[in-house]
Amino acid sequence: MDVEGPQALCDLCLDQVCFSLEALCNKRGDGSMSLIWAPVFPQELTDQLLQNMTTKGILNDTTVGIFRNCEKLRLRRASIRRCPVSAEAFRLALCPHQLLELDGSWVSGGLSGADVISGLAGSSQCRVSLQGLSLSGLHLDWGALEADVGACGSLGSLQNLRMLRVDNTDLTDDILEEICSLPRLETLDISCSTVSNLNALIKCKNTLRYFIAHRLKQLDMSPASLLFVFSQLNVLRHLDFSEDHFAVDDSDGRGADEMLQQLLEGGPQVLPSLVSLDISGRKRLTEAALRAFVESRRGLAFIGLLATGLSFCHVLSSRKNLKVTGEANEDQVREALRKYRERECFVREALLHLYSLTADTEKPQPDTLKLVVGVMQSHPESLQVHLVATACIFNLTNQGLAEAMPVSLISSTVSQLLHAMKTFPNHQQLQKNCLLALCSDYILQDVPFDKYLAAMLVINWLSNHEEPTMQRMAVAVVSILVAKLSTEEMAQLSKDILFMKLLAMVQQKAMVGVIDSTLKFALSALWNLTDEMPTAARNFIECQGLELYEEVLESYYSEPSIQQKVLGLLNNIAEVEELQADLMDEDLLEHILSLLKNSQVEVRYFAGGILAQLASRTEAWTLDEELRTTILKQLHESVITWAHPEREMVSYRSFHPFVPLLQPCQPSGVQLWAVWAVHLVCSQNTTHYSWMLEEEGLTELLRALSAHPDTHRDIKTLSDQILSMAEKQQSDSGEVRDLTPSEKA
């Protein structure tokens, strides 16, 4: 059971709105969308709709137009994060709303920080309502804002702004001066900006509670000057002065490190309100200074120590409610992944430690896996993040751990693995990590994900690489995935290059008589690829597969597991009328006929299927008639002695290949093999196949066969038993349902 439960009805409805947006809208003259009709949306629901559109990547200049209808769709907390929205579309769709918060981080489409501020400041409602604004990653273009001659066009007109994020921007000292003049500013993030001086912070010393200044690479202040500024911030509760430890050299950040050392040692009189300090990445700080800081701050709730070498300090374990980011244990690493999701340097560091800590894990950790998937989503193009994250996923999902986690979590995890494979197709170790994680019967059989995409990615990799261990994993994954695809998807996969690769593997193993998992998986993949796929069966023949399979059939005469897979594929060819001529070889058929005496019912079954298909068409038989007569006689004599195997031996996408074999005019040997086959699968999975019988017309065929005066009593008996099973199943269920085609095993 999925402990997360089903998706909320509200979310499902919003998903459907997003999916059907084209049908629900008209286009304005400028190309933007307008809802044809809409009720008055609850305000929270409007925020959710915008968030959904942003998350799904469908928000742009066209679709954002639906929010111009401020009477029906009222926004308060708006996010257009990473969406391609232009300045004009932003002004028309979002600025008329009474916004409380706006996240415009990393927006593409030419929208600048000046465009956002000008639009918001030009709205009489937003000037009063706006409290939170994120401009992360934008070009601020402050000169354009200064050139705006409008009375209300400046940042200063947003008098109620409490939170501002201008990290990863071209923020300058002059702009910081203006920002710090905001009368109610409580939270400020200037990380990764070009600021060199922090004296402006003194302007907001009575309001600033949260200051984030990660990686200020151009900061140019002495330790004493920095400490003086911070000593003025008496209401500051959270200070983030962390550093990118991958990017710094020995001389970088020395002044800031000295200031932090003094801060740690200085006692609670400096920053008396501080309850949260992040100094991750700062490698020059001492354990003694940290101990003094923690012991003197009884109200300390969080301290960031990742990549400092200080997270093993014993004083930390004495504070039970203190949250720590570090590498000393899994709790610290999880906190780092949670806290630093957007910071690649810290994500990489945390994942490396997580990999080591989870190498021998035996307990399911869904919360940890969710964090790993989250950081992969936050850094979709980072090879370093994905390389370690995919290794962590393997640790967290192998040995049956995946089965104990929510299905929806495993599904999203597999989607991220596929994204990694698609984004980094030539990185062997990353591909190996993904294949290792995917090599799970539970994941491949029971977890919903895009199996066609997965098959395509694995096949593409398989076509270009020779490493034996990875080939074995890739073939294993493909052999299961292809059985899960629709016939339309199978048709797109069944290309010569795949057959040639798989056949080359079979030939390589057969030449030295090897029996291993690679051979078995390759044979299974070829079998499934040709299942009810005439074009694929023809491709197989054109790639000289038939000649190879004849050799394999003879070489592995004492190996039923190999023979079953070879005969299964030959069965697929025999089902295609226009390809039956390729099997009309006397030596081949005599060898297959001899297999009716094999000790294994699986081998006898598939040998019988080939013979039944070929002997069913008198007009297509080109060999000696005496051989056909012998086949029909021995087929009947063999089938009537078969007992059902205890385990499932075969499954079918449809019963279409059986239709010509169940005609009253067919010889009894052909009919008997067909009804035995149908009886087998119906008895093993009555619920599924009884409906297939009805839907595909086999019920009427079996009734006609049973009623025909010339039908052999053995065939009548089995036909009646099948009909009884089907009637009982339909009676027990009391309803008719749609059917999903099954697959051959």
Description:
This protein is mainly alpha-helical. Among the domains are: 11-161; 162-328, Leucine-rich repeat, LRR (right-handed beta-alpha superhelix) (Alpha-Beta Horseshoe). Helix content is 51%, strand content 5%. The strands form two sheets. A ten-stranded parallel sheet has the order 3-4-5-6-7-8-9-10-11-12. It has a two-stranded antiparallel ribbon with strand order 1-2. Helix 20 (451-462) runs antiparallel to helix 21 (468-481). The longest helix has 21 residues, at 713-733. It is elongated. The model is unreliable at 735-745 (pLDDT under 50). Residues 376-727 form the Protein zer-1 homolog-like C-terminal domain. This is Protein zyg-11 homolog isoform X2. Keywords: Ubl conjugation pathway. Belongs to the zyg-11 family.
CATH superfamily grouping of one domain: Ribonuclease Inhibitor
Question: Whole-number radius of gyration?
Answer: 34 Å
- The CATH class of one domain, by name, is Alpha Beta
The name of the CATH architecture of one domain is: Alpha-Beta Horseshoe
Mean pLDDT: 92
State the share of residues found in helices, binned by percent: 40-55%
Spatial sequence of strands, sheet with the most strands: 3-4-5-6-7-8-9-10-11-12
Compute the number of strand runs. 12
**Main sheet specs:** 10 strands, parallel
Which structural class do the helices and strands define?
Answer: mainly alpha
Stretches where pLDDT is under 50 for at least 5 consecutive residues are: 735-745
Separation of the first and last Cα atoms: 26 Å
* Silhouette: elongated
**What's the number of helices?**
34
CATH fold-level label of one domain: Leucine-rich repeat, LRR (right-handed beta-alpha superhelix)
How much of the polypeptide forms β-strand, as a percent range?
A: under 5%
